[in-house]
Amino acid sequence: MNKGNKLYEGKAKIIYQTKDKNLVIQHFKDDATAFNNLKKAKVEGKGVLNNRISEFILTNLMQSGIQTHLVRRLNMREQLIKKAEIFPIEFIVRNIATGSLTKRLGIAEGTILEKPLLEYCLKKDELNDPLISREHIFAFGWANENEIKFIDKITLRINDILSGMFRAVGIKLVDFKIEYGKAWNKDTEENEIVLADEISPDTCRLWDVKTEKKLDKDRFRKDLGNIIQAYQEVARRLGIMPEETNISEVNFGKTIPIKFKKK
Ligand code: 5GP
């Protein structure tokens, strides 16, 4: 599949056109950012790992009947995906209180939630992705009631599937963020809602069941070090390893110096 022009460049990924107007290529960069771009670094090998981990997770979800944008992985850093019109909403599911929930509401860190908590945030960097209500979504037409009803149901199903998948390899799924879009289904010849973006240690909080060691992007956010080793550990436990032929490109196991850009 030939790569065409760059359509969009985000913080961690680039989207390229293809000859097919309904398909694009998603390229995973090594760039890590946090706190709305205030902290930036290159984490060598992260893009390769997230590409593999996200492919593995989305493939598993598709096997459970969940529609996603993934067509197939193309190489170490790229996936062929359906072009989707993304809802401007981040859907966050929390099983254990941490992060912005504890800061915002003063809930004790580590509180186990009685049932999964679903939150919506507006995808708007300039405003720091603010928390919004369903009423905001409907008032401003970011999605309609049927779409949100459908997405909520799938999102909680994804939480069940992923919680089980991670628990089986000794990892607690603490929380995660997902995005959805509308993409063309060539079989039904209709637009349908698909899970988009990625699911990886960049977008989830993953804690080791026994030690509660963080195996996710909080290692970068909180300067805990050994970021790539943690992502590699997630990949190893899920039974995913990179192609041996290209392993030299990845520098697994090395401690990578991180540079901070402070404002
Ligand atoms: P929090 O709201 O506590 O910062 O994040 C909740 C969960 O959503 C965490 O797993 C976090 O990684 C994920 N998340 C929220 N917003 C973003 C975002 O803008 N980018 C990424 N990669 N993950 C996010």
Describe the structure.
It is globular, with a radius of gyration of 18 Å. α1 packs parallel to α6. It has 2 domains: 6-84 and 226-258, 2-Layer Sandwich (Phosphorylase Kinase, domain 1), CATH 3.30.200.20; 87-208, ATP-grasp fold, B domain (D-amino Acid Aminotransferase, Chain A, domain 1, 2-Layer Sandwich). By secondary structure, the chain is an alpha+beta fold. β6 (70-73) and β7 form a beta hairpin. Residues 243-263 have low confidence and may be disordered. The strands form 3 sheets. Strands 8, 9, 10, 11, 12, 13 and 14 form a 7-stranded antiparallel β-sheet that branches. It has a 5-stranded antiparallel β-sheet with strand order 1-2-3-7-6. Strands 4-5 form a two-stranded antiparallel ribbon. It has 7 helices and 14 strands. Guanosine-5'-monophosphate is lined by residues 90, 92, 99-101, 129, 175-177, 202-205, 217.
Per CATH, the class of the largest domain reads Alpha Beta
- Mean of residue pLDDT? 92
Low-pLDDT segments, ≥5 res: 243-263
Query: Which cofactors or ions or other ligands sit in this model?
Result: guanosine-5'-monophosphate
Return the structural class: alpha+beta
Got a strand count? 14
Shape: globular
Q: Can you tell me the CATH superfamily of the largest domain?
A: ATP-grasp fold, B domain
The helical percent reads 25-40%
Task: Output the helix-strand order.
Answer: EEEEEHEEEEHEEHHEEEHHH
Radius of gyration: 18 Å
Distance between the termini: 41 Å
How is the main sheet built? 7 strands, antiparallel
CATH fold-level topology of the largest domain = D-amino Acid Aminotransferase, Chain A, domain 1
Q: What is the architecture of the largest domain at the second tier of CATH?
A: 2-Layer Sandwich
Count of structural domains: 2
| Separate helix tally | 7
What proportion strand?
25-35%
